Amino acid sequence: MASIRLLFLFFAGGILVQSIGAQNSQEVIIKEPGICQLADLFKQSDKVVLAKIVAGDTEAYDGAIYKAEVVKSFKGSVIGDTIYFGHYVGERLGWEYVLFLRNVPQSIVPKKVSVAGYGTVHYSEVFNEGYSSMMTSYECVFDGNEIAQKCDQGVRVCTDYLKIPTSTPAFPPTTEDTPFGCRWVRKSAFISLLDAFANRGK
Questions:
Q1: In sequence order, what are the residues at sequence separation of 6 or more whose Cβ sits closer than 8 angstroms to the Cβ of residue 107?
Q2: What is the pLDDT of residues 39-52, one digit of tens each?
Q3: What does DSSP say about strands 82-87 and 64-75: parallel, antiparallel, or unpaired?
Q4: 164-190, pLDDT tens digit by residue?
Q5: Do residues 96 and 50 touch, judged by C-beta distance below 8 A?
Q6: What is the chain's Cα-based Rg?
Q7: Rounded distance between C-alpha atoms, residue 155 and residue 169, angstroms
Q8: How far is residue 18's CA from residue 76's CA, in Å, rounded to a whole number?
Q9: pLDDT on residue 24
């Protein structure tokens, strides 16, 4: 068996991991997401939607492809549309996500006829290293003196990388370290921001 060694090269924005063997080599690039304003992410996206994931496929295609139903559209789609997106794993079936997506010009084709998946479909991609997909959930992390005030529907926004207006509170506050720099924003407040961006474009 050929021996394999790993070569770690550090560069601005990420780490290049290179495995070198006697017959082949493989490179995996781990990147840091870019830091941008929410308004800029909105402009960079072809679709901005609140969507419910109804199915996911990690077998038929090169990468995870999800099927979702649009619950609310802010840009590039309409309510009730079926959309396909990928390629990051870990999205939860049956959950709603706020998605900022870029359309991919080429359709995606199943790897094998025997495992057809959704067939050949047009899809959009989650970008900025996966940070343009934001899970929604009922959380009890918000401000207020009573439980009813602290608990609300929220959107998980990684505010270390995606900058929201300072007038929109995030929980816990930015003075506290959080896993992956992600915090919760009240869903109603976040939806209002996206509605405002959508109205500007009309």
A1: 120, 121, 122, 123
A2: 999 999 999 999 99
A3: antiparallel
A4: 999 999 999 989 999 999 999 999 999
A5: yes
A6: 19
A7: 12
A8: 39
A9: 56
Tell me if the bond preceding 87 is cis, omega within 30° of 0. Answer: yes
- What pLDDT is stored for residue 33 in this prediction? 74
Residue spans per domain, the chain:
1-32, 45-133, 135-200
Structure tokens at 55: 């199915």
What is the Cα–Cα distance from 132 to 43, expressed in whole angstroms?
Answer: 12
With H, G, I as helix, E, B as strand and everything else as coil, classify residue 198: helix
Q: What was the pLDDT predicted at 114? A: 80
Which residue(s) pair with 19 in the sheet?
Answer: 6, 26
pLDDT in tens, 134-173: 999 999 999 988 888 999 999 999 999 999 999 999 999 9
pTM of this prediction exceeds 0.70: yes
DSSP string of 172-185, one letter each residue: S-TTS--GGG-EEE
Helix then strand then coil, in percent of the chain rounded to 5, is 15, 45, 40
Contact 124, 102 (CB under 8 A): yes
Residue 121 exposed, middle or buried by CB count within 10 Å (0-12, 13-18, 19+):
middle
Distance CA 93, CA 126 (A): 16
Structure tokens at 46: 């072809």
